[in-house]
Specification:
Helix content is about 50%, strand content about 15%. By secondary structure, the chain is α/β, with parallel strands linked by helices.
Length: about 190
Amino acid sequence: MPMVMGFGILVAILAYENLLDDAVGGLLIVALLLAGWGSHVRREYLEIKPEGDQVQALYRATAQQPGELPIVINDGDLFLQLQHYTPAEFSSRLFYLVDPDAARKYSGTDSDDLILLGYGRFVPLNLRRADSFLQSGRPFLLYTSPKGWLLPVLRNEGAKIELVSIANGYTLCRIQPNHAMTGVADEKSTLLNF
C-alpha cells in the first residue's frame, strides 16, 4: 500500500509540473487513473458478487450439508462482503465469532475483531461472542482461511472437526464443539459487551 500511495504522489507531482498549462493532458491522466481504479473495483466485485467464485464455492459446499446449520466465517473482510452481497435468506445464517484475545494469540492480530465490533455499532452484523457461541454445543459450519484463529482454538479444545471441502484457499468444516470449551475470552472482557 505505501508503494501505491508513493506512486500516486509521484504521478501527481509529475503531472503538475509537466502539464501545468495542458488541460487535455491532465484530463487524459485523470481518465487513465479512473479507468485503472474502475477495472480494479470491477474485478473485486466480480469475485464476491452473488455469482462470483467465492460465493458460489460457499453455496455449493454448504448446500451439500444437511439442515440449515449456522455458518461461521473466520475472515473479517470476507464476512463483511458475504453479509452485503448474499441474499438475506443466506446471509442470516452467516456469523462472525468475536474474541480479540484469542485472535491475537492464535493469528497475531485482533484487527478484524475490533473493526467488526466498531462496525457492529452502526450496522446490523451477526457478531457473536465466541465463548457463548461455542459453549452452546450447537454444531455449525466453519468457513476459514489459513490466517483464521478459530480452527486452532477448536482443535485445542477437543471439538469434533470434519473436513467438508477446500476451495479458493478456504476450508469448510463441520464443527461439533465441546460443551466445556475454555480457551476463549473470559466473561469479564469489556470489549465484548454487545
